[in-house]
Design brief:
The protein is α/β, with parallel strands linked by helices. The chain has a single domain, classed as Acetylglutamate kinase-like (Carbamate kinase). It has helices at 8-12, 30-49, 61-73, 85-107, 127-142, 166-176, 205-210, 222-232, 249-255, 275-282, and strands spanning 16-21, 53-58, 114-119, 146-151, 180-185, 190-192, 195-197, 199-200, 238-243, 261-263. It has an eight-stranded mixed sheet with strand order 3-4-2-1-5-9-10-8, sandwiched between helices. The chain has a two-stranded antiparallel ribbon with strand order 6-7. Helix 3 (61-73) packs across helix 4 and helix 6 runs parallel beside helix 8. The protein is globular, with a radius of gyration of 18 Å.
């Protein structure tokens, strides 16, 4: 039976890593956001110094847009009621620039230039668009630039179905042929009651039934995170689910044997799926 020890060497050798950051990590109290980003840029600087390539997939544009409107209106909060799709798209349009400026202010301190990539499902409909997107990622990485990815929420209608970018991060990992997807969340990993599961080599229906839905400001939850990992398994891409509220969570994932939850199966060879495989495999994902 496989244990986390069996994957330590392959994790250490992971060359291309996609890191997914949820809305909760970049919204709320300013001091908490700053503490998180300080640790994040330090950990990514260390990984890059080790020769690893990093891509960020970040939620938070809608949350940042809401905050802008609250600040502009001078009220403590927006009126209660369900946010419409048009309002969410408008919040994203308002908040995307603020979110990127926030990242720029921190990554510039450790001399890491950043670039923004926004895309949606339609950008993967044709082989040429898929190839262009993949080539853009590769060129940025070759130049030493950190791509920061979000769905094009201001014009897209798919965001509600992608689980706060959990599935989008899996799509990005598949497009670039990443070795590892690392999802930062607000819990210590996959929990079965009070027990944290250190390793999954497969995701069963029973496992899915134990996964919880969204909590906090995002639209995802453990359900979408564990399914993002499940979608990547056939392509030999590993997934780590870790508590982003812990100090230097990314560094701890690589240095501590049982930090977070790892989803990996060495029986599947690593490969990059085609555009048509992504369309059929990833967008048939069942929402909870």
């Amino acid at each position: 039976m496989k244990t986390r020890k069996d994957f330590l060497d392959s994790l250490d050798k992971a060359k291309l890593i996609v890191i997914k950051i949820g809305s909760a990590r970049v919204s709320g109290e300013e001091s908490k956001i700053n503490d998180f980003l300080y640790d994040l840029v330090g950990d990514i600087r260390t990984l890059r110094d080790q020769g690893k390539e990093i891509i960020l997939v970040s939620s938070g544009a809608i949350a940042q847009g809401k905050k802008l409107l609250v600040d502009k209106s001078g009220t403590a909060e927006l009126p209660n009621g369900k946010t419409t799709l048009a309002e969410k798209q408008a919040f994203a349009a308002m908040g995307q620039n603020k979110l990127l400026n926030l990242y720029e202010s921190f990554f510039s301190r450790v001399n890491i230039p950043i670039a923004q990539i926004l895309f949606g499902r339609k950008d993967l409909n044709e082989d040429s668009s898929f190839t262009n997107l993949k080539q853009t990622f590769r060129q940025l990485l070759n130049w030493g630039i950190l791509p920061i990815v979000n769905e094009n929420d201001s014009v897209s209608t798919e965001e509600l179905n992608l689980g706060d970018n959990d599935i989008l991060s899996a799509i990005v990992a598949s497009i670039v042929g990443a070795d590892l997807l690392l999802i930062l969340t607000g819990v210590d990993g996959f929990l079965n009651g009070q027990e944290k599961i250190d390793l999954f080599t497969e995701i069963s229906k029973e496992t899915e039934s134990l996964a919880t839905g969204p909590s906090g400001p995002g639209t995802g939850g453990m359900f979408t995170k564990i399914n993002a990992a499940k979608l990547l398994l056939p392509f030999g891409i590993k997934t780590g689910i870790v508590n982003g509220e812990k100090k230097h969570a990314i560094a701890q994932f690589f240095s501590r044997e049982n930090f977070g939850t790892l989803v990996a199966n060495s029986s599947f060879p690593h490969r990059i799926p085609t555009a048509s495989e992504i369309q059929t495999h990833f967008f048939s994902f069942p929402t909870e």
